[in-house]
From TrEMBL:
Transmembrane segments: none annotated. This is SDR family oxidoreductase. The keyword NADP does not apply. InterPro entries: NAD(P)-bd_dom_sf, SDR_fam. The lineage of its organism: Bacteria, Bacillati, Bacillota, Bacilli, Bacillales. It holds the Pfam family adh_short_C2.
Length: 261
């Protein structure tokens, strides 16, 4: 594994789940990590975990849909450490699961704003600093909207996740001249707390599609993956071991999406 010592990373949604696990992993390898999260208390707990393993972390409360927040948060990283090498655009919500016909416009907008606009703003304001030496941008997308389309009520979430992959491919080509690599990870079911951000409308049962897999829907492990496994992938994409990989979506789902597609 190519050394990541003394590199600097920004992790949005770094206070929990995949974001916190990836942040801790990078810190173990000597990366200085900025935790950008709307929840300051959660981020402080992750910061303490990082410091307990002699890592270095900075907490910057940030709402990723607010352009001023994102811009100034990244500027704080530069003021603190003078460089930026890795951007993990991970913040996101599942939103409200609802039929398209009855979905509130505000529910659609909230999901697209956080998942898609938040990714755009994070990448946009990181680019000027990544240009100095090149770097790696990693976007958390999903199997939803890319390989899986059978989840009832996921139209907003899946649209945002498909949009992230399209954005990633455009950014990868645009930024290649600056030695900035851009890739997306597409997790399936992972044991995180994103379920807490899911709200189900009463009308959801009306559009449910019955799908049954007698031996489970994760062929590789017969159960959801773990944040540590996703952190393995983030570590690889953050390092120079993936130096010839850009513009690529990588599925990490134990084969789940091959059954559900």
């Amino acid at each position: 594994m190519t050394s990541l010592l003394d590199k600097v990373a920004v992790v949005t949604g770094g206070g929990s789940g995949i974001g916190s696990e990836a942040a801790i992993r990078l810190a173990k390898l000597g990366v200085k990590v900025c935790l950008m999260d709307v929840n300051k208390d959660d981020s402080e707990k992750v910061k303490q975990q990082i410091e307990d393993i002699d890592g270095t972390a900075l907490v910057v409360p940030c709402n990723v849909v607010n352009s001023y927040d994102v811009k100034t948060s990244i500027e704080k990283v530069i003021q603190m450490w003078g460089r930026l090498d890795i951007v993990f655009a991970n913040a996101g919500i599942a939103g409200t699961l609802s039929p398209i016909e009855t979905m509130d416009v505000e529910e659609w907008e909230d999901t697209l704003e956080i998942n898609l606009k938040g990714t755009f703003l994070t990448v946009k304001y990181a680019i000027p600093h990544l240009k100095n030496k090149g770097g790696s941008i990693i976007i958390t997308s999903s199997v939803s909207g890319n390989r899986v389309f059978s989840q009832p009520g996921f139209s907003a979430y899946s649209t945002s996740k498909a949009g992230q992959v399209a954005f990633m491919k455009m950014a990868a080509l645009e930024l290649a001249r600056f030695k900035i690599r851009v890739n997306a990870i597409c997790p399936g079911a992972i044991q995180t707390n994103i379920g807490e951000s899911i709200h189900k409308s009463p009308e959801l049962e009306q559009i449910a599609v019955p799908i049954n897999f007698p031996e489970g829907d994760q062929p590789l492990e017969h159960g959801p993956g773990h944040p540590e496994q996703v952190a393995d992938l983030v570590q690889f994409l953050a390092s120079d071991d993936s130096s010839h990989i850009t513009g690529t979506e990588i599925y990490i789902d134990g084969g789940e999406s091959l059954l559900r597609g």
